[in-house]
Amino acid sequence: MEYRTLGKTGLSVSVIALGCEGFMNKSAEQICSEMNFAIDKGINFIDMYTSNPELRSHIGKALSGRRHEFIIQGHLCTSWENDQYLRTRDIEKTIISFNDQLARLQTDYLDIGMIHYVDAEQDLQEVFNGPVIQLAQRLKQEGKIRHIGLSSHNPTVATQAVESGLIDVLMFSINPCYDLQPPSENVDDLWADENYAHSLQNIAPERERLYELCEKRGVGIDVMKAYGGGDLLSETNSPFGKAMTPVQCIEYALTRPGVAAVMIGCKNVEEIQAATDWCEATKEEKDYTRVMSGMDKFSWQGHCMYCGHCAPCSVGIDVASVNKYYNLTNAQDDVPETVREHYKVLPHHASECIECGQCEENCPFGVAIIEQMQKAVGRFGY
């Protein structure tokens, strides 16, 4: 298992993490068995969006005696009413549900308190100018949550949340189909067939800016919906008309700036195994460009996707990383200290490019890499 630091939180999280929805309607024994399997695979990070009291109790039992080994991302603003989950902004319901969550999970704190499902700008203003953020900050002061997060599907709202400085972690939906779509306050737009019926070109700039902003601000991203609700794993259901593998979907998400972990809602040990196969997968098995290149209706032409196909560089430059760090400096007057240091420690720099052109021949998206190296030299000085 690979572990990454979740932004500025300092938490070391497994890049393959668990969403909780796959554990619904299972016995405590089944959940304990599947959690043990996941932990044996090196997974140490789980998202608990659900307010289902039975599931919370079962997860608490599964983690009993090893809470300190596990990182729990629990959600504020979810409650359980009439035997079903409900998103709420009612502060009393939120407090009751939060306390119930701690009790059932057999813990006195959450590593991340995730403000749940904020897709509309009006909702964001209500959350950040009202009792919800005040509650989150009070719980953090009391040590009941260690870090504040927010979940969203809308890059415009997510960007505003990151720019506010009020959150440490962002839970966001990332996959190559959703990345093509412009911002929307209606989450259904992400998978509406009509939105993929016309030609789409490159990642929506609002999404790319969001990922780069998170990297620059130290706001760690954990990814939801990496499989697009399962659609991307099906040739029939995928907007691309081609099926991706779980490994390819995970690799795509993990190569976006700012991303530390991918939450996978696994229904059984076979699906956990399919996700953790990423850890031992070959470069060829991780290669998502096999699905994304050469399409008539969808194109990423001229756009660096950080896929690494440009390698091997004849002088050893990590071209994808140079491009990523250069892109992190765009639209700024100076180079952020963290980006400068990350670039500095690369074993080889853009100035070493001998313009042999092999990387451009290798690139499936026709990126002008030599020109990009020249721009990087201009920005970093070497």
Quick description:
This protein has 382 residues and is an alpha/beta fold. It has helices at residues 28-40, 53-62, 91-104, 121-128, 131-141, 155-164, 205-217, 246-254, 269-276, 283-286, 289-292, 319-328, 337-344, 358-362, 369-380; strands spanning 3-5, 12-14, 16-19, 45-48, 71-76, 78-81, 84-87, 110-115, 145-152, 169-173, 200-201, 220-224, 259-264, 298-299. The radius of gyration is 21 Å and the shape is globular.
Topology summary:
Layout: E1 3-5, E2 12-14, E3 16-19, H1 28-40, E4 45-48, H2 53-62, E5 71-76, E6 78-81, E7 84-87, H3 91-104, E8 110-115, H4 121-128, H5 131-141, E9 145-152, H6 155-164, E10 169-173, E11 200-201, H7 205-217, E12 220-224, H8 246-254, E13 259-264, H9 269-276, H10 283-286, H11 289-292, E14 298-299, H12 319-328, H13 337-344, H14 358-362, H15 369-380
Parallel strand pairs: 3-4, 3-13, 4-5, 5-8, 8-9, 9-10, 10-12, 11-14, 12-13
Antiparallel strand pairs: 1-2, 6-7
Helix pairs in contact: 1-2, 2-3, 6-7, 12-13, 12-15
